[in-house]
Each structure stands twice: as C-alpha cells, then as structure tokens.
Write a structure and sequence with these properties.
This is Dabb family protein. The chain is an alpha+beta fold and 105 residues long. It has a single domain (3-99), classed as Alpha-Beta Plaits, CATH 3.30.70. The protein is built from three helices and four strands. The longest helix has 17 residues, at 16-32. The two termini are 13 Å apart.
Length: 105
C-alpha cells in the first residue's frame, strides 16, 4: 500500500513573488541534498483551492516513510531556516495524507 503526502500552503496573494522565490529555494534544497524528500509543486489553475495556494506532494511506500518525512522537515536546520523566512507570507497551511488505492479490487 502506498501513500501520498500533500502540504497545502495558502500564501498572501500580494506577496506571491516573494513566497514563490523562497519556494524555489526549497526546490533547490531538494535537488542538492539526497536526504530531502523529492516532491512536486503545484499552483491551482482551476478548482477548489484559490490561486494563492501552493501544493507540495510526494508519494511514499509506507505510512512510516510519510511520518519520517514529516519529522525530517521539522528537524532539518536547512529546512527550518528557510521555513522561518517563508512563514510571514502564510495565510493558512495544512497537511493531507492519502492512501493509494491502485492495485486494490
């Protein structure tokens, strides 16, 4: 059974450029460091979420791996330092975990 972790972050629309520049730096951290979970980033084009929402998602084989990724984000000083710079632009954020059903009946 596989799982998808989604971090949903609504940012201040007036600070879109600043928020996305910092998000670009998160993407660079992922690319440069093998220990970072490798996710994909999405901005809504159409749908329920407002346009000032960034969604980061990554798939994992087990729920334990999801929990390890979340603990990694909280404990990694490089991630935390960048997160502190991005936090003033947040309006809302939440975490979602989905169980993958492919392969089931």
């Amino acid at each position: 059974m596989a799982f998808k972790l989604r971090l949903v972050q609504r940012f201040q629309a007036a600070n879109r450029a600043e928020f996305l520049e910092l998000e670009h730096q998160f993407a660079e951290l992922e690319r440069r460091h093998d220990d970072f979970p490798k996710g994909k980033r999405y901005l809504p084009f159409s749908g329920r979420e407002p346009l000032n929402t960034l969604i980061w998602e990554c798939e994992f084989e087990t729920l334990a791996e999801v929990q390890q990724a979340l603990a990694f984000f909280e404990g990694d000083h490089r991630h935390e330092e960048l997160a502190k710079r991005q936090l003033p632009y947040f309006q809302d954020a939440h975490t979602e975990i989905y169980e993958t059903l492919e392969g089931d009946r």
